[in-house]
Write a structure and sequence with these properties.
The complex is a heterodimer of chains A (239) and B (445). With 239 residues, chain A is α/β, with parallel strands linked by helices. Chain A has seven helices and ten strands. Chain A has a six-stranded mixed β-sheet, with helices on both faces. In chain A, β4 (69-74) and β5 (77-78) form a beta hairpin. In chain A, α4 (125-138) crosses α5 (154-166). Chain B has two domains: 2-51 and 311-443, no CATH class; 59-270, no CATH class. Helices cover 52% and strands 18% of the residues of chain B. Chain B is built from 13 helices and twelve strands. Classes of the chains: A alpha/beta (239), B alpha+beta (445). Chain A binds chain B through residues 59, 62, 64-65, 84-85, 88-89, 91-93, 95-97, 99, 103-108, 112, 116-117, 119-122, 164, 168, and chain B through 1, 4, 7-8, 11, 15, 351-352, 354-365, 438-439, 442.
Chain lengths: 239, 445
């Protein structure tokens, strides 16, 4: 799974992607032909009102769901042609996820939570442990390794989730409203963290948000409306 | 992959200790029940075999009365001592013939008294029943002929009356009861009378057969202890074989029963000789002596110990099989319990499964994790069950006084079965978990 990659080739490429839920009369068109390219090293905010298709497109981009029609190329690979297991492998080796609801394993220490993706990668125990500690340190949670999600604040939990997402050193990090459950101060801390990851580690980040304040941290803003990309422009405020 | 999946499964089990314990409880109980039933059942079978062996398998018992007679009761004609003598004289391949009568009595020595069984016979009795004397001497011929007031006591009687002290030469008194002169086979030492095990009073006990000769009310006999029987322990029917006092038959007939009747005749056939042949000869002889016409049914019964052995071991084995089957059902129920909990656990952990799938767990890895969880749980349950069963069987074997027979086969089988239960009943929930859609699973509240 090492496709040839040229500088011009987009990391993520959507061409006329549609997504239809249900069939016949009851069918619902979530995406009506989305075209989108994201290149390596970008920090993209995906915005739009509820039902605009931003979450659906995120699921497709994250290889959790498949498009009804159209082409999705990830690193040049046509994802639509992959089996479920192959898409899983894609997620395992190239993608990281941060969710709005943190989605950590309960009653499981922060370290074990962060280790989880490495277990599925089959990393040996000592390497797993070292990398999980390192990831926790990056998100500023050194010393909190043995705490369970129940013992951590919302902001800390989201940091653990981010650590879990970056511990595999993914090519793309998908964040679905990562600040949706946090107050303003914590939200900005998380955004600082993501910005830093993008800047320092070169992680490509695609983030869904409906808060303009958070989108302001990004380099590019893509707006969805009624299943189509309504606008796609660089964020001018970014210094 | 397997090792990592094992790791995940073990972490999950450790996280939910309480749930895990409750999950395996059914398996623990099921496995324990099966093993205990089989172990104790085998112990009982072994015990029956041992006792039969100690009794001598070449034993024939002749009792008056029909074996099974629906209606048409002709009344039982009791045997006389002469019948026994005739058998000894006329039937070939017979080693010893003992006419036996027995009755429950109260034995008294000093301030101690004990309800026991008096067995009246001659010295052939010891030979026929494979018993030896621990100390003292057997009856002399003159004592047997004259009806001397002498007795040989069993270990239990010795313990109850003398507290284990030296008893040879002492005199004990025997008080016969008014109503319960037993003459049927139920009074014999081979099967024992079930009604007499603990009662101090000896009123009308249920063991009387219709054939009994009437006892003379309140008969008393004071006799000298001349011998002490070697202990034999419990019989296969659970009665104490050492709870008896042996006196000469003539003494019993004259002083206690007041009649010349003999309850039963026990015969030992020579080793190697066909018991069937002896059985036929005895039957022919007795039919003749009892003046039965060819159209009449036998009004007596010649039983071969071998048949009884077969019957007893057969019964024990059948009981074991039956109880084990019931226990196996509880193992099955335990398995269903595991499936139940695993299904609930899949629903409860939907989000967790969603997370795993989203961050890169393959369907097969989630399946394997849940399968490993249920197999680890059920095998651990099996191990606990085995431990419980071994303790339980030792305890129960002691309680029921049967030997503890360790059966490695059934222990292994129970363990493998419990692991198999984990696979079988864990598969469906595991499949359910693996087939979840990660998006739906993540959205699940």
């Amino acid at each position: 799974m090492h496709p040839p990659q040229t500088a011009e080739q987009p990391l993520i490429e959507l061409r006329g992607v549609t997504k239809v839920y249900g069939t016949g009369q009851a069918s619902m068109h979530a995406l009506r032909g989305v075209d989108l390219c994201i290149f390596e090293g970008e920090f993209v905010a995906v915005m739009g009102p509820s039902g605009s298709g931003k979450s659906t497109s995120m699921n497709i981009l994250g290889c959790l769901d498949t498009a009804t029609a159209g082409v999705y190329r990830f690193m040049g690979i046509e994802v639509n042609r992959l089996t479920r297991a192959q898409r899983t492998k894609l997620r395992r080796f190239y993608l990281g996820f941060v969710f709005q609801g943190f989605n950590l394993l309960n009653r499981t220490s922060a370290l074990e939570n962060v280790e989880l993706p490495l277990i599925y990668r089959g990393a040996p125990a000592h390497e797993r442990r070292a990398r999980a500690r390192e990831a926790l340190e990056i998100v500023g949670l050194k010393g909190w390794e043995s705490h369970t999600p129940g013992e951590l604040s919302g902001g800390q939990q989201q940091r653990v989730a981010i650590a879990r997402a970056i511990v595999t050193r993914p090519t793309v990090l998908f964040a679905d409203e990562p600040t949706g459950n946090l107050d303003t101060v914590r939200s900005h801390e998380i955004m600082e963290l993501l910005t830093g990851l993008n800047r320092d580690q070169g992680v490509t980040i695609v983030m869904v948000t409906h808060e303009a304040e958070m989108a302001a941290h990004c380099k590019r803003i893509v707006r969805f409306r009624d299943g189509l990309v309504a606008s796609d422009e660089p964020n001018v405020k970014e210094s | 992959m397997l090792w990592n999946t094992m790791l995940l499964a073990l972490r999950e089990i450790r996280r939910n200790v309480m749930r895990s314990v409750l999950t395996i409880l059914g398996i623990v109980i099921g496995v324990a029940a099966v093993i205990i039933m089989v172990t104790v059942g085998e112990g009982a079978t072994v015990q029956v075999r041992q006792q039969i062996a100690s009794m001598g398998s070449n034993l024939l018992m002749v009792t008056p009365g029909k074996r099974l007679g629906p209606g048409q009761s002709t009344g039982n004609v009791p045997f006389k001592e002469a019948d026994a003598r005739a058998i000894a004289r006329d039937v070939g391949s017979v080693k010893a013939v003992a006419p036996v009568s027995s009755q429950s009595v109260k034995a008294i020595y000093g301030n101690e008294n004990w309800s026991t069984q008096v067995t009246a016979s001659n010295n052939a009795y010891l030979q026929v029943t494979n018993r030896t004397l621990r100390s003292g001497r057997p009856f002399s011929d003159s004592e047997v002929r004259s009806g001397a007031a002498v007795c040989i006591v069993g270990e239990t009687v010795l313990k109850k009356l003398f507290g284990g002290q030296e008893a040879i030469g002492e005199r004990i008194r025997l008080h016969g009861s008014a109503s319960s002169t037993t003459s049927s086979s139920s009074g014999s030492t081979t099967s024992g009378s079930s009604s007499r095990s603990s009662s101090k009073s000896n009123g009308s006990s249920g063991s009387d057969s219709a054939s009994s000769t009437s006892g003379s009310g309140g008969s008393k006999l004071s006799c000298e202890v001349i011998g002490l029987l070697e202990g034999k322990g419990q019989s296969s029917m659970g009665t104490d074989q050492d709870d008896l006092v042996v006196i000469p038959l003539s003494t019993f007939q004259r002083r206690i029963a007041g009649s010349q009747d003999v309850g039963m005749i026990q015969i030992s056939v020579e080793e190697g000789a066909a018991t069937e042949k002896a059985q036929q000869d005895i039957r022919r002889l007795l039919r003749d002596r009892r003046h039965l016409s060819p159209s009449d049914d036998d009004n007596f019964n010649v039983m071969d110990m071998k048949e009884i052995v077969k019957m007893l071991t057969g019964t024990t084995q059948m009981m074991t099989a039956l109880l084990s089957a019931v226990a196996a059902v509880s193992l099955l129920v335990g398995g269903i319990g595991i499936m139940n909990i695993m299904l609930v656990s899949v629903t409860e952990r939907t989000r967790e499964i969603g997370i795993r799938l989203a961050i890169g767990a393959l369907e097969s890895e989630v399946l394997l994790q849940f399968l490993v969880e249920s197999v680890v749980l059920s095998s651990f349950g099996g191990l606990c069950g085995i431990a419980l069963a071994l303790g339980g069987s030792v305890w129960l074997a002691g309680l029921l006084r049967v030997p503890f027979v360790f059966n490695g086969g059934i222990v292994l089988l129970a363990f493998l079965f419990s692991a198999a239960v984990g696979v079988i009943f864990g598969y469906f929930p595991a499949l359910k978990a693996a087939r979840l859609d990660p998006i739906d699973a993540l959205r699940y509240e």
